[in-house]
């Protein structure tokens, strides 16, 4: 199982997530489960619009490197522009887990290097995994997320 975190804080965030999910299913693999949409403050750099975030679980025939290439295509085709680290994004797709593999390459680290410190990843991930979240197990002091919607496929 592959777990992707998807986020957007530019334009119609809901529509961006919906388009992204459709592209993931079309180009990467079948979506097995997905979280609700969560809103969170921007990460790393303040004075930005809040993010809409979600996690999807998918099955794919592709390896991690190929999935990363397809993710880049999806982001570029949707209009993502490079700004600055933690800058605003029309769409952002991160590989959180990939079939229990560990990958340490210059352009790819799996599991995602910082997933345990981001409530906007942890809470939707636990929802997809259907697990009870014990927030005291993570370093997420002061972070808040709120469910704000759902995407029906």
Notes on the structure:
By secondary structure, the chain is of the alpha+beta class. Helix content is 27%, strand content 29%. It contains three helices and eight strands; from the N terminus they run βαβββαβββαβ. The protein has helices spanning 13-27, 64-78, 119-129; strands at residues 2-8, 29-34, 37-40, 51-60, 92-98, 103-105, 108-110, 145-149. A hairpin with a 2-residue loop joins β6 and β7 (108-110). It is globular. The model has no long low-confidence stretch (mean pLDDT 90).
Structural descriptors:
single chain; 153 residues; 3 helices; alpha+beta; globular; two-stranded antiparallel sheet; six-stranded antiparallel beta sheet; 27% helix
Describe the structure concisely:
With 153 residues, the chain is α+β, with helices and mostly antiparallel strands.
Strand content: 25-35%
Low-confidence stretches: none
Which whole number gives the mean pLDDT?
Answer: 90
Distance between the termini: 19 Å
The helix-strand sequence is EHEEEHEEEHE
Q: Please give the share of residues in helix.
A: 25-40%
What is the total tally of β strands? 8
The number of distinct helices, counting runs of at least 4 residues, comes to 3
Rg, alpha carbons: 14 Å
Largest sheet: 6 strands, antiparallel
* Morphology call: globular
Summing up helix and strand content along with how strands pair, one would put the structural category as: alpha+beta
